[in-house]
UniProtKB/TrEMBL annotation:
This is Putative type VI secretion system protein. Coiled coil: none annotated. Residues 210-382 form the Type VI secretion system component TssM1 N-terminal domain. PANTHER family: EXPORTED PROTEIN, INNER MEMBRANE PROTEIN-RELATED.
Length: 444
């Protein structure tokens, strides 16, 4: 049976008429005014001739004056409503100006509020769904300033920035929050100066509180679906003990503030960025084929691993397997290098990876063992600028640890290389034994 596509038709009409809506609103006001005047003229011109149920209701002069009074009262009520709305808007603007004069920080808070409200309207138009708030999961990227949050999303997460703020009151506005809308999720890229609780000024603290309050007000049932914590891996390896302790303390405060403000437990996905900056990574990576380069490098913990020490064993098993595979491919990789510097770089990368596992485990353990900490740790991934950054955080049942990208390309060549070396050694040993036997025979 044929069904008229009503919803699709109305959606198409809304999309087509949306650019002309501001002009249409002005035209509608003029049309209403003309319609009111036309009906008033009609009451006195054609009213006496108008019949309803075989009666001339507007024939008496009193009835026409009564209809005119009712019609004028309707217009007066509508004008009063419009004036009241206008006065409320002006009063709100004056109140905002008084608050800005009393508290200069309110200017930035109002700018952020206006920016987020405009983005929310664009999101509704972009998704074109009444359930636009819940159509996609919302995630927030947090981490220290300069940990590669923006680069991670820009290079690895296909998304659109659906709203860019224009100049407000003649000044250009640079928001500290950049929402990115993709096909699988909405991810908020938050500047590190806004999320770092340690040593920040009053403005950033109030902007952060306003941002978390906006999330709570906009999606009260579930403000966020998870947090993506980025850590700069080279900086983590070169940091001393005091810097790591400071980092752990800041992360604890940050996660605890988010949990207390949003009143919910959020899964945390840890991404170690800038793996490509480690010495020897380029030589290892460029030796792989495209399939192995695009493979995911990381481990997804079981659902309740954070409640016990199971996450330690799962992370340790992943790291041990990966380091073993790197070591197996190490000899073949070093033989493939032409100079001493590339060989030293590959060897240095292998040694760095062995110690990195212990550092990452100690950091996460210190983060989970904090006082009143309830972190739902879901996994650890390593990311570099060549990767697609698919951490599988959007799927409901993510795959387990993946480590095969290191040796999938080199495993067959490794065994053939070792076989050739073994055959060559056997041939040399046979020649040496034969020569020794001949010398002994000649001397005898």
């Amino acid at each position: 049976m044929f069904r008229f596509p009503t919803s699709r038709l109305f959606s198409t009409l809304r999309s087509a008429l949306r650019p002309a809506m501001p002009r249409f609103r002005v035209s509608a006001a003029w049309l209403l005014a003309l319609a009111w005047i036309f009906l008033l003229v009609w009451i006195w011109w054609q009213g006496p001739k108008w019949t309803l149920y075989e009666q001339h209701w507007l024939a008496p002069l009193t009835n026409r004056w009564l209809a005119t009074a009712v019609w004028g009262l309707i217009a007066l009520i509508w004008l009063t409503w419009r004036v009241m709305k206008r006065l409320q808007k002006l009063e709100k603007q004056q109140k905002q100006q008084r608050e800005e004069e009393k508290d200069p920080l309110t200017v930035e808070l109002h700018r952020q509020q206006q920016y987020l409200d405009h983005w929310l309207l664009r999101l509704r138009r972009h998704l074109d769904n009444r359930r636009y708030l819940w159509q996609l999961p919302w995630y927030m990227v947090i981490g220290p300033a300069g940990s590669g949050k923006s680069a991670l999303l820009r290079e690895g997460f296909p998304s659109d920035i659906i709203y860019t703020p224009e100049s407000i009151r003649g000044t250009e506005y640079h928001p500290l929050i950049t929402p990115r809308v993709g096909n699988q999720a909405v991810i908020f890229d938050v500047d590190g100066v806004l999320t770092s609780p340690g040593g920040d000024d009053l403005l950033h603290r109030r902007l952060r509180e306003h941002w978390l309050g906006w999330l709570m007000q906009t999606r009260a049932r579930q403000p966020l679906n998870g947090l993506i914590l980025t850590l700069d891996l080279p900086d983590l390896l070169t940091a001393d003990k005091s810097r790591r302790e400071t980092l752990v303390q800041n992360l604890r405060q940050q996660l605890q503030e988010i949990r207390q403000s949003l009143h919910c437990r959020l899964p945390v996905y840890v991404v170690l960025t800038r793996l490509d900056l480690l010495t020897g990574f380029a030589a290892l990576f460029h030796s792989l084929d495209k399939k192995d380069r695009d493979a995911i490098l990381g481990v997804t913990f079981t659902r309740r691993a954070h409640e016990s020490d199971d996450w330690r064993s799962e992370l340790g098993a992943f790291w041990q397997t990966w380091v073993q595979q790197v070591n197996l491919a190490l000899s073949d990789l070093m033989l493939a290098q032409t100079g001493a510097a590339p060989r030293s770089a590959v060897f240095s990368f292998s040694r760095q990876m062995q110690g990195t596992g212990e550092i990452v485990t100690a950091l996460l353990a210190a983060l989970l063992d904090g006082e009143n900490m309830d972190v739902m740790l879901r996994g650890v991934w390593l990311n570099h600028r060549y990767s697609v950054a698919r951490w599988m955080i959007f799927s409901r049942s993510p795959p387990p640890a993946s480590t095969g990208w290191v040796t999938a390309r080199w495993q067959p060549g490794l065994w053939w290389r070792r076989r050739r070396i073994l055959l060559a050694a056997s041939s040399l040993k046979s020649c040496w034994l034969s020569r020794t036997w001949r010398v002994k025979t000649a001397s005898g």
